[in-house]
Amino acid sequence: MSTPAPSFCGLSAATLLNERGVDIVVLEANDYVGGRTLTVKPSTKEEELQFGWVDLGASYVGPTQDHVLRLCKTLGCETYLCKDNHDNIHYSRGRRCRYTSSWPCFWWSNPFAAWDLRSAIIKIQEMVDQVPEDCPWKAAKAIEWDKMTFKEFLNKQCWTRDAKEFLEALCIINNTADDHQVSLLFFLWYVRQGQGINRIWRIKGGAEERKIVGGSQQLCLKMAQKLGGKVVLKKPVFQVGHMDDGIMVKTTDGTVYNGSYVILAIPPVTHMKIHFDPPLPSLRHGLIQRTPMGLVIKWIAFFREEFWVEKGLNGFVTCMDGIEVVTNVGEDYKPGVSSYGLICFICGQHAVRLSQLTATERKNHIYKVIADYEVVHFEEKMWAQEQYIGGCYTSYYPPGVLSQYGPALREPLGTRVFLAGTETARKWTGYMNGAIEAGERAARQVLHAQGKIPSDEVWLDEPKCETVPPLKLCWLETHQPSLGMLLAVIVLLISLFIALLQLY
Amino acid sequence: MSTPAPSFCGLSAATLLNERGVDIVVLEANDYVGGRTLTVKPSTKEEELQFGWVDLGASYVGPTQDHVLRLCKTLGCETYLCKDNHDNIHYSRGRRCRYTSSWPCFWWSNPFAAWDLRSAIIKIQEMVDQVPEDCPWKAAKAIEWDKMTFKEFLNKQCWTRDAKEFLEALCIINNTADDHQVSLLFFLWYVRQGQGINRIWRIKGGAEERKIVGGSQQLCLKMAQKLGGKVVLKKPVFQVGHMDDGIMVKTTDGTVYNGSYVILAIPPVTHMKIHFDPPLPSLRHGLIQRTPMGLVIKWIAFFREEFWVEKGLNGFVTCMDGIEVVTNVGEDYKPGVSSYGLICFICGQHAVRLSQLTATERKNHIYKVIADYEVVHFEEKMWAQEQYIGGCYTSYYPPGVLSQYGPALREPLGTRVFLAGTETARKWTGYMNGAIEAGERAARQVLHAQGKIPSDEVWLDEPKCETVPPLKLCWLETHQPSLGMLLAVIVLLISLFIALLQLY
Known about the structure:
The structure is a homodimer.
Chain A: H1 7-19, E1 26-27, E2 39-40, H2 45-50, E3 54-55, E4 60-61, H3 66-74, E5 79-81, E6 87-92, E7 95-99, H4 111-128, H5 142-146, H6 150-157, H7 161-175, H8 184-193, H9 197-200, E8 210-212, H10 217-227, E9 231-232, E10 237-243, E11 246-251, E12 256-259, E13 262-264, E14 275-277, H11 282-289, E15 296-303, H12 307-310, E16 313-319, E17 328-332, E18 340-347, H13 348-354, H14 359-369, E19 375-382, H15 402-405, E20 417-419, H16 432-449, H17 475-478, H18 483-503
Parallel strand pairs in A: 1-9, 6-16, 10-14, 13-20
Antiparallel strand pairs in A: 2-3, 4-8, 5-8, 6-7, 10-11, 11-12, 15-18, 15-19, 16-17, 17-18
Helix pairs in contact in A: 1-10, 1-16, 3-16, 4-7, 4-8, 6-7
Enzyme class (chains A, B): oxidoreductase
Organism (chains A, B): Diploptera punctata
Cofactor (chains A, B): FAD
């Protein structure tokens, strides 16, 4: 018997084990299955026509996320393309920059900043390529990069405030933690396992290319349905004890489960909720103390008109001026409904401040931002309120943690307790794809421990999804000299010009 | 009924409440009372004569720690002065600097470094003075200083590698966290509430002036003895629930305690071990995820000879060359025993590495460092192994935490749950003094909630201990221009000299 706990990852593990005939029970702390996915269904026919289902948690899938694409196929769920035909906006200090590609181009307002941003992105990708996907702590410069916050790196790398502020926004939106909170090594690793800066930060061809028709939580609901009574809700685990011949798990209502193996499919910090017997090794205990969950308030509003498209905009906005509350806006496009959705992400100090208000106060506060437009429906989710999740999207690593404590990330606790959760994935950690990868790998660890499969069948690569091909980058996206080199070339050309003038 | 949990702080709270006739129970997770104090008693007469009692946890007391000095007096415990008559050593990159005062003087090897270090210390103290003792998040520059690691500050402030490396050592020894792990704001606050850089880092007149005859744990043992059966061991709390008319507390063995109030006298991160009903407010949940315990291995060895004194040394060593394992050594002086003790603190990446070895491997590793001298007795304590403590000395704050989440540090959870633990103290947090201050304050919060005392009697200042007077600083310790200004003066003098030469 194996007992995985909460949701997307645990259900993936349970499904695989169940198919292999292993006797299992899934203990879910919450009163629903889905983990960090949650789809609000319309309660009336009118609502269905107006705005349909709403994803309040993980929502997007994209190319190279082969695990989740395969699961969609298996469970008969369709994906659809998000829209990406118009312009994006980057706000900063009261100014706005309108652009079409992934990166704002400040060419007309500040050509130095445009050059600076492009070369910083290329520099970041060069560093990203030096970080091993599965064990970032083994990067040649792991210790050096882990002693630095991403902010510190930006201060050294960027010449212009525009470039720096956009990359700050990228960090805060990507990691739901401020650039001064995360280590440079973690930032690079997160981008690395998200398949590079040009894929993790992109709609078409990137991490936000697609959504699942009907919402993402249905993947969990369908897996749970197949498992039937083997999934038990409202069973927070508070104790995991090793016995001579197995494992004992206790839930807060006093129920005791005895089994042979356990998969802990929860974020690292949620392991702190469990009293371990014997206590955890000190490296593992150090890790779970040091990897908090990111903080984001997700807020979705539906409007009668698609006013942004009327202005030729995608609805995608990044905002880093420290005045507006919203850090990131994206379009919540859904075919077949009469209203038009925008998703707002509120991050950083604004999220800390707003999380202390009541839901009504928060709503009033955010409504001010969109005063000009009538909202026909509204949903909000603050994952930081969830005791057994702690935040969203995923764990972040402050400086000095990943290089030192990283090796304890996936290391099993003895021979019977295996660690899963999207945070332990080798690819797309923090995403649904990582949750499935980690869950299935942990399930195969159990099968291996049971002697059912050899060790080389535990860590498997997922076959590529043929229908969603990966992105190809153009030459210009990967090549550009630094601003320093550009200036040197300009100075050289001017010198040559003057020299030529002297000659003739 | 009130139920405080683990040790020094909990016992202080319980003692005060018990004296006021409140019906209490103390639930201690471990099988001993003392929290982060632990005194090994000699098991034979021979051991008593040879090395006596050994403090493996908190040990030192000093002037301005008026709470613990008063408690010593109340419980009939004497303090004695640690020795501070000889020279200290600072090792760095294979070189050693011998010095007498609190700060290494590199005057002969590198006068610039000497000047640089002195002016950095004065600069730090100026900044420390701007941080409010009880609410560092209200400092005028709180947000700016919290976006920076202490390492980043040192890189900006210090001109010389010698000065920088010594201050790195100071940080790692003071906070049991690397200079790149802690925010500048936290570093400054910790020094502030430790009554300034010239007191927290000092033997005579400072935090390490005295020890308690017989060891520090006896304070807890004596308090527990007075409380008798009201202290229950091996009762880890895993659930705290609010009911209509009180509080329900459950321990891992299934026992249920019902009461009117609870004091949680545990480090912030240990709150993660508790399942709260209702769940914590998100600011509090964010805080306890983001404040890990420091990491240190404390290692005490006794030698036949006081070989360091023969060389005119105090036994106090700081080491920052990245090669030697030990970060800090101090003398474990005790009158009336025949052997001579040294306490070694192993911090940072060395501690991470060594914590993964077995006790024997670790011992062999450390023995190499002191190969020349015969060890007659040896004790070791790795607090990171303790599930309900998680590390030592205390919590640290990575960048971006104290300014944002700090306000949740001592804020009661509703009207019945009060927060204590040395981490919530206003003075000497992380020390025994802070534990007592916080415990007694939380007890008075309960008394106030019961209507027994008015609100202005909750937060009380402790009367000064007359027998242990505070330190007076000399003028030179607080005044010195920066290296930049020194250089400017030198350039000015040389210019004047040349000008005068031209004149005559």
